TrEMBL record:
One of its GO terms (cellular component) is cytoplasm. The gene is rex. This is Redox-sensing transcriptional repressor Rex. NAD(+) binds at residues 97-102. Modulates transcription in response to changes in cellular NADH/NAD(+) redox state.
Length: 236
């Protein structure tokens, strides 16, 4: 079933839509792996965990409206979303902070298949310099700016201790990086024009604990003081 190539999606796609595109891509990849050729908006929405009206609205920003009575071609829509979110390019990534989390990120095999190439590993501990992790030698943090320039780094992943996160972000921004993924348990500030995404595992666990407690009925037994303290913890 042939489809015409869509017009380029308009600028200014809502942030909420951008945040959901990877969900659709993951769902489409799963469908493709199962040999599914076409999918209805209802089926795709269910697989992605969103409602179908929202999915159709999101995909309309890509110029994709499917085919009435048939739905969407899985591979065609995968290509559209992959192109829209920039995964047809090779994004060089540096991981800064090669502790337990940094090691795990460096060894994660899913980055390469999604267009992200771990190009360098950097750590402030001199004892780690030269250590090989996931086929790369760890470079000392004194070399950070040189690493960014010579390897044409596009994205910095910060996995340092909390106290070092702001200084590291300042350095990578000064070196020209405009996209940062922060795993450090710290709130950092970046200038306008720099995209900063934060992954706070402890906060997510606290939120899960809150909901688990509510499901178990334990929340009903909280004193007023305990409730205030719990709310503070969830907010981080």
């Amino acid at each position: 079933m042939a489809q015409l190539a869509p017009a380029p999606s308009p600028r200014g796609v809502p942030e909420a839509t951008v945040a959901r595109l990877p969900l659709y891509l993951r769902a489409l990849t799963s469908l493709s792996d199962r040999g599914v050729a076409t999918v209805s908006s209802d089926e795709l929405a269910e697989t992605a965990g969103v409602n179908s009206a929202k999915l159709r609205k999101d995909l309309s920003y890509l110029g994709s409206y499917g085919t009435r009575g048939v739905g969407y071609e899985v591979e065609f829509l995968r290509h559209q979303i992959t192109r829209e979110i920039g995964l047809t390019q090779d994004w060089a990534v540096v991981i800064i902070g090669i502790g337990n989390l940094g090691h795990a990120l460096a060894n994660y095999g899913g980055f390469a298949s999604r267009g992200f190439r771990i190009a360098a590993l950097v750590d402030a501990d001199e004892r780690r310099s030269g250590e090989e992790v996931a086929g790369l030698k760890v470079r000392h943090s004194d070399e950070l700016e040189d690493v960014i320039e010579t390897l044409n780094i596009s994205i910095a992943v910060v996995a340092t201790p909390a106290h070092a996160a702001q200084a590291v972000c300042d350095r990578v921004v000064a070196a020209g990086i405009t996209s940062i993924l922060n795993f450090a348990p710290a709130v950092v500030q970046v200038p306008e024009g720099v995209e900063l995404r934060k992954v706070d595992l402890s906060t997510e666990l606290q939120i899960l604990a809150y909901h688990e407690q509510r499901k178990n009925g334990a929340a009903l037994a909280l004193t007023a003081e305990q409730a205030v303290e719990l709310a503070k913890a969830v907010r981080g």
